[in-house]
Write a structure and sequence with these properties.
2 copies of one chain form a homodimer. The first copy, chain A, has 243 residues and is an alpha/beta fold. Chain A has a single domain, classed as ComB-like (putative 2-phosphosulfolactate phosphatase). In chain A, 36% of the residues lie in helices and 20% in strands. Chain A contains 10 helices and 11 strands. A 5-stranded parallel sheet of chain A has the order 7-2-8-1-9, sandwiched between helices. A 4-stranded mixed sheet of chain A has the order 3-6-4-5, with helices on both faces. In chain A, a hairpin with a 2-residue loop joins strand 10 and strand 11. In chain A, helix 5 crosses helix 6 and helix 6 packs across helix 7. The relative contact order of chain A is 0.23. At the A-B interface, helix 7 of A face helix 7 of B.
Chain lengths: 243, 243
């Protein structure tokens, strides 16, 4: 396929992805910037070897019984049997380097499961924006940015990130066709970027997490390029392809 | 329900609406600004008495056989058995005052069918923006703005309209809680409104219709408040509640 036929599509919620045919030559980037995505990037930044995402709590319990470290959350709160919740700060300075981590979350891991079957599945967040953008640019593939959202509704923060990633992909030279959803994401990002920390406070998910006491995690999640990692799916687990 | 508990939610495609529970005390505004919505407003502006939306071509054929006037379109083109396509200009200065019109279109009439069961169903477009906004303000209801989109993907033009309607509803005093999708629509409209005709050219649906020769209809669809009508569903048909 000629480079000028490549496209970037933003899909705002997993249920819209499931209705679509899988595209050929397509990398799917899963986006859950306030939680799972940033937790995954942080874990790799701390030296974790593999991350196995599982969609259901039941699967996470089984993995815990098998001896795996588990990060698990539902509706913003840590699952009681898990070693960690879905909070990046919980993973810092813990003895997790070289280990395998199982993760299950309210929205993010459902989106990952939905993307099953795509040629490439990776995760992007503000904390690894520059690294994932540079890598995607080298791929010569169509790009689908799949936002995890919140319970299958549109979420502002994931959309803003989709716009940030699109901006990096179309500069300095745009070889991609942009879907309407991609144009909208890009425009929202261009409004947000000069004051990202403040802008994100408009998001209902952000406000929900502040109430749950995660302000520090939210500031961290909105900081650009702090984790030099590219989490990419291989078989049933993520690996960091930057070593 | 206290007025300060009211909310405005924008839903970007019909398939996302179908997954949701019907809200109490809720008016659903169907949005398909470049085609069905504006065709319906124009027909009422020309004095049509009733508009019966049908989702399938088969139903439209049956209604034609029963003697109804039919406006029918699929993929932008007029259905061969129909009296009119989905083009507002076709309906102007025709002998349709006092008559009943049946309409079936690619996206808009599917969204109308999806909303079945809501307490109030109405259509809003740029051409009746001020009238529908004023009426909604008087209702004291939750508002769901359901964008028809294009084949169940996000469309820029319907979203921009959702933002325009939201802006009118929250001024001069905002008594509504806005969903993330509503905030995004409002911000996109605020970018678009100073040059709406040019902005809409970014929309893929707009470009598709220009190729099909509908430039004149598109200019008309982007003109504010030219049809003083409020199409509201009663039983299985729309009626203009401004007389």
């Amino acid at each position: 396929m000629a480079p000028d036929n490549l496209n970037i599509e933003v899909i705002f919620t997993p249920s819209l992805y499931s209705a679509r045919q899988i595209k050929e030559n397509c990398a799917v980037i899963i986006v859950d910037v306030l939680r799972a995505g940033t937790t995954i990037c942080t874990a790799f930044n701390e030296g974790v070897e593999r991350i196995i995402p599982v969609a259901s709590v039941e699967e996470a319990v089984l993995m815990k019984q098998k001896g795996y470290l588990v990060a698990g959350e539902r509706n913003g709160e840590k699952l009681d049997f898990a070693d960690f919740g879905n909070s990046p700060s919980e993973l810092m300075s813990r003895d997790i380097a070289g280990k395998t981590l199982v993760i299950t979350t309210t929205n993010g891991t459902q989106a990952i499961e939905m993307a099953h079957g795509a040629e490439i599945i990776a995760t992007g967040t503000f904390t690894n924006l520059a690294y994932i953008a540079e890598w995607l640019t080298s791929l010569d593939m169509n790009i689908t940015i799949l936002c995890a959202g919140w319970r299958n509704t549109f979420s502002l923060e994931d959309t803003i990130f989709a716009g940030a990633l699109t901006e990096r992909l179309v500069q300095p030279q745009n070889r991609y066709v942009l879907y309407d959803s991609t144009i909208a994401s890009l425009e929202l990002w261009q409004q947000a970027k000069s004051g990202l920390f403040v802008y994100l406070q408009k998001s209902s998910h952000y406000r929900r997490l502040v109430k749950l006491g995660f302000q520090k995690d939210l500031d961290y999640a909105a900081d650009l390029n702090t984790t030099r990692v590219i989490p990419v799916m291989e078989n049933n687990y993520f690996k960091n392809i930057i070593k």
